[in-house]
Structures are given as C-alpha cells and as structure tokens.
Amino acid sequence: MIGQLLTGRYLILEKLGAGGFSETYLARDKYLPHHPLCVVKSLQLSVNSTISLEAAQQLFETEAKLLEGLGQHHTQIPTLLAYSHEHDQAYLIQEYVEGESLRKWLTRNQRLTSAAAIKLLSEMLSILTYLHSRRIVHCDLKPSNIIRRKRDGKLVLIDFGAACQLPEAASNTESGSNDLAMAIGTPDYMPDEQKLGCAQLNSDLYALGILVVHLLTGVHPREFKRDLISGQLDWQRHLTDQAIEPSLIAVLNRMVQSNFRDRYQQATEVLADLQTLPINRFRQRGSGWQGALPKLVVPAVAGILLGVLGIQYVRAQGQQTVSLLSQLQQRFHPSDVNLTMVRDVSMQSGVDRMVITPNNRTLVTAGSDHVLRLWSLTTGAMLKTLSGHRATVTALNVSQNSKLLVSGGEDGTVYLWDTDTGRLLRAFEGHRQPVTAVAISPDGSTIASACKEGRIRRWDVQTGIRMQSLKLSHGGVTALAYGATPDRLISASNDSDRADDSMRQIQIWNLSIGKLERTFAGHTAPIVGLQVADDHMLFSVGKDRGLMWDLKREELVTVFPQDSANAIATSFNEQNIVTVHTNGSIRVWMRQAGQLVQRKSGALGRDLDVVLSPNHRYLVSWSADRRLRVWQLNVSDIHSK
Q1: Which CATH superfamily does the domain covering 5-95 fall into?
Q2: Confidence band of 520 (pLDDT split at 50, 70, 90)
Q3: Which of 22, 67, 335, 368 has its CA 20 to 30 A from that of 53?
Q4: Whether the Cβ atoms of residue 372 and residue 409 lie closer than 8 Å to each other
C-alpha cells in the first residue's frame, strides 16, 4: 500500500505494524493544511489468523463505532477521522499520536519506580473509568497499546480492535460476554474469563495490573507462575528494587487475581486504595520512563501535602524520612470542630432551599410560601422579601460578586433578582419540567438553568434572550456550575430509570460552539453538587463520596474516603473542604489530599437542611421544628508556616 492515495485523500507513507486481522500505516491527509499525519488501519487477515473473515469484519466495524463515540470526548483516546470502503476493502483513519510506546521503553531494560507506577496506574485508571462507564472493555491492554504522547506527556490508549461493549444486563458479578463470544486480545495479559470469551469490566483491571508488574520487574508475564495453593502470582521474586511499597504490591496482587470475583470490581475502587498508600516512603531513583518520570517521581498528593505544610522538600533519606512521616501523622490526627449557635429564629413558613452569598454576608432562604427572604448573616435580621414565584422554589444560586440572585421553580420558571434592591430583573420561561439547577457565569453576563428532562438553557442577563439550548442524551441534570470562563459550563446528570454507573456523569460543555467537549465518570451514586475553585479544580459531591478533578489535566486527582458520602452541604476554600452529612456530623478535609483533619459527630441532629458560608465561619440549619439556626464554626485552616 505504500504510495497509495486512499480515497483520493490519505497518502500512505510507511507500514507501522500488523495484527491478527489488520495492518496499520502512517499516512498524510492531503486535504488539510500542512498535510498532518494520521494512521490508516486496513482490514487484513493474517495467514495465522484463527478468526473468520466475517468475525474480523464485525470487530473492525465495532472498533469504528466505539472510536466514533469515544475519541471526541476523551483526549487520551485517538479520534476517529474517517471510516471508508474502497475496492471492497475497509479502512479506519485515526488521529496520529506522536510519542513512545511502553513496549519501546521496555526494550531499553528500564524499570518503573513505585511512584512512577502509581502515577501510571492513576492515569490509566482514569481512562478505564471513562470506558467502563459506557460498559466498554478494551480487552487488549499491553505495553504496545499505550503511548506517552510527546506534546504533553500524557498516556494515550490505542488499538480498540479487540474492544467490546457489554450489554446493560451484564455485571461483574455475573459472566458477561461480547457478541462474538470468543477470546480476542493478547494471551499473556488476558485473565481466564476473557480467554473463555466472557470479558468483564474488571478484565481490563487484570491486564493493567499485569502490565504494571511487567514494567516494575522487566520480566515478561509468560514467565510468571501461580502458586497452586494460594493462587497468587509469583511476580514479587523478580523485583530488583527492594523499596517497592508493600501496600502497592497488595493493590497489584488484588488486581491480578485469577477469579474475577476476587479482583477489584471498578477502577474507582483501585484509585481509592492508591490514595491511601504511604507515599513518602518511596525511594526515588533515576531510572524509569523518561528518567523514571522525573516530573512525577514524587506523587502529586505528596507534593501537595508538602506544599500545604510549608515544608521545603528535599530527597529525605533514613531518619529524615521517618521524622517527616511522624510530623505528618501528628499534624493530621483529626481534631474536633468547635460549633457555637449564635442565632435562633422562629419562622412561620417552612424553608425549601438556602444559599449564602459569596461575600459571606447574606443568607437567602426560599420559603414553602414561595417567597425568597434575605437575612443578615451576622445579625440574623431579615433584610428583604422577594415575591414572584408561584410554585415551589427548587434551585438557588448567587453571582460571584453577590449582586445577582437566580432562582428556579417547580413550574419551570427562572427569575433573576438584584440582591441590593430586592428588585426582580428578569423572568425567563421555557422549561417544561421543574428546574433542578441554576448557575451564573463568572462575569455575571449569562445564567444557565437545567431541568428534570435533561435540557440546559443559557440566557443573556442584559436582554433576557435565550442564547443556547443543550440536551443530554439520557437522564436529568442534578447540578450546574460555570468553569473559570463564561464559555465553559459543567453539568452533572443522573438517569433514575437506569441503575448502572454510566448514567452518573459530569459533562464539560464548550459554550462557544455549543458542544459537549468532555465527560467524566467515576461516581457510583447520584451526583448532588459541583463546585469549582482555582480556575481548574472541580469538586463533585456524590451520595457515594466526594471526588476532586483537575480540569486542565482532565483527570481524577483525589478520591475522598467513604466518610465523605451523603453530604447535604459542602463548601471549600484554598485549604479545606467542609462537609455536613445526613447524620448531622461535620467533617473537615484537607482539600488536595482527601485527608480528614477535623470532625464533629451528630452535633446538628438529623432531618436538616444545611448551608455553609464560603469562608467556613458560618453554618445555617433549618429543622422540622421551624427553627432557623445560625452557627459559628471554628474550622482551623491548614496554612503554611
């Protein structure tokens, strides 16, 4: 095929490789400016292929369909550029990823450090979380299918030729299978159930575990044996680095269990365990991918911990490391939150919603009588009443400058208010379902509203004109937040009619083109809140737990412990996150590390509505006895010293 001009557009330059039923070529797109490189994959059965042409064609078509939906929404999966037929031959044209594969890196006889292994695991698990949320199993995780992209150093997962999408009824507790019901993949990285043609979501976790073991030891997986009694893989005897953290070994051992029921069931479970590893004991060495991943030898969490504490980092060895660990353990032993009630107000009507303005001065309540009331947070005095809603108020939000208040109602109406004067500025109508979330852009120029049917509308504050309408493919919107700029909107969705985790997602919208740009998946229960800080950090509040995302790196960075579950109110600043839970307890977490630093159990009682001030100084609760109580919190921020 070298020199062929495919479909009159793609000039074939050289052959890159071949598999059981395909060949790949490097090509140039002659239609586009600068003639960018791309990859052409041709359906071609090898002489040693064990599958039929019909099965190969089905796999090839499946790969095209999967890539079409995946690459556009995840930057670490190649984008499908075209799927064409010419002279009775099928071709896939994909994005070219410039970089080095893990296989090439292995040929230089290098080894990963513990820290680099954890970084690689975390990045790959983030990709698998995205795939598995769509019930897609890659089925061929191996060194040659992972590329370290040259332009940004990120890992990219390629070659979806063996991938399958499990039916909705399949689960990791019951044997699932793809439509072909045969073993597709690379045997040395395949678990037993996949060899039988019954791939599970956690079959990919097995392959990833074997892959990391290969990188840590330098020994090919075919050399490993299983203990006949314990069933454990004997890979540890091949370790040349005796400083591998035992907790990391335990995580890998669980990933590579022979029986899929004994493994981790979800990628998020592995990520959660990685967060608990005693990372400061890892030995730093110069070998590894790109010099043992020099930018990542110290895991991100360790760097954050040291930065927060104001400790100048050095390559601590011996007694210095033990001393540092001792300081960390003493500093992070959870202490009690001091809570003092400063106001107790009796109210005739109930309270359906509450919000505190970003300037920490005003409390806004939405009453069961559909009236909004503004209260002084410091004195407890009622400042204004805002009337206009004809139905229950279901959503509230305040602009960053605290001057605009937006409210949404059960009847689909959205109102915009001036908090200084109490005047109704605009009424927006268009939703046919109850409004579930509202947000105001950082510059106060637009507002966004979402409803139960999954439709998001964006409005111009000055003119009241509807600027945009976005629609989720499944489920309703449970939370909204603008990003750092007015052209980025973040939504959370949940499909109450479906129980699988793929319907609990976070969507990143590019409003300048009105398109869904990125999707995050990781929550196993409905998402109830979204908060953005530092322009690029997103905290998602789920009924399962809290998750922290880096929007710039487009990855999950912190999985909070299960103690963060069932939060009914959340607020965070530069240092801490404060959560209030359904059982009335208050917990304070170190934001970047997910470490619990303060707590108070059952102080507020149960069956409450609660809101927190952004500065963590006030907590307001509403109870069934029709008492609105203002509490002062004494939360000790963790500052550098």
Answers
A1: Phosphorylase Kinase; domain 1 (3.30.200.20)
A2: confident
A3: 67
A4: no
